[in-house]
Design a protein that fits this description.
The chain is an all-alpha fold. The protein has one domain. The model has no long low-confidence stretch (mean pLDDT 85).
């Protein structure tokens, strides 16, 4: 069973690697993109549940909706990071999820603090520091990306705490519901203070939003939440560190970002990947063969 959950986890990471591409392909403001993503994901998932004759009910519905709010805020910072830098920078900053998970997990999940995991995660932090110091033009995007990583670590950990005994479908429905309600209230307030040039997607952007909502949200988070049932939050966050590999590869292939990346970026990225390898090796040694 756990092998299936590991497969789900890796599929979710692969799908998340595509997410940053749509932040560039869709010309709308990052806050508007998140609203469309949450709304259409909720709509599509509700139709799925209707055909499956499933009625999500849970006594902790309000708490789960709160997770959706946290997810929506994370997505705004994540898309903002990419808008103010590029896809490669945004997804590399996401690698700090493992670092923040090490810090937050003992407090939220009451687990033992691991200095070994902290050491491995600090290698990734040093990689981000190199990129931050040498790529000054992307600093604001990097800051948004770091905040995004911290928020996603919290989202993963609170999911781990709340989802015990609950179905993935129920969790995702209420998270999308909470995120959609929050974004529907937040967008008008945001638009009052920030000039938003356009609210409607143009042409093929509707297709990008559909793919983003269904494949990179509904399927992605169903697999992500499902994997948390048998896999530790740290391992989930650790595997999520592979997202930059997919994200950078897709950005180079589809957006031609290779010319925007400096030597310092590649050094920092190498350190982050080294951190992923060391943590993976450490975890695999502990798993039963």
């Amino acid at each position: 069973m756990q092998k299936i959950d590991y497969l789900k986890l890796h599929i979710s990471v692969l799908l998340s690697g595509f997410t940053g591409i749509f932040a560039k392909l869709i010309t709308l403001n990052e806050v508007v993109i998140v609203w469309y993503r949450m709304f259409f994901a909720l709509l599509l998932f509700s139709v799925m549940l209707l055909f499956m004759h499933k009625k999500p009910k849970d006594a902790d519905a309000l708490k789960i909706c709160g997770l959706g709010v946290l997810l929506a805020i994370h997505l705004m910072f994540f898309f903002g990071s990419i808008k103010y830098s590029n896809v490669s920078i945004g997804v590399v900053c996401y690698s700090l999820v493992g670092f923040f998970t090490v810090l937050f997990e003992p407090l939220i999940c009451k687990t033992k603090f691991s200095f070994v995991e902290l050491f491995y995660s600090l290698i990734a932090v040093f990689g981000i520091w190199l990129i931050f110091n040498f790529d000054a033009s992307f600093r604001f995007g990097i800051i948004l990306g770091i905040i995004s990583a911290a928020l996603f670590a919290l989202y993963t950990l609170f999911n781990k705490v709340i989802e015990v005994g609950k179905s993935s479908r129920c969790m995702l429905f209420y998270e999308l519901l909470g995120g959609t309600i929050f974004m529907s209230l937040f967008v008008p307030v945001y638009a009052h203070f920030v000039n938003i040039p356009a609210f409607l997607p143009i042409g093929i952007e509707w297709l990008w939003i559909f793919i983003l909502a269904f494949f990179c949200t509904v399927l992605l988070y169903l697999f992500h939440i499902g994997a948390l049932k048998t896999i530790s939050a740290f391992t989930v966050s650790l595997t999520g560190n592979l997202e930059p590999i997919y994200g950078i590869l897709f950005a180079i292939i589809f957006l031609g970002e290779a010319h925007d990346l400096t030597v310092s970026f590649y050094i920092g990225m190498t350190l982050i990947f080294l951190s992923v390898f060391l943590q993976s090796f450490s975890k695999n040694k502990k798993l039963p063969q």
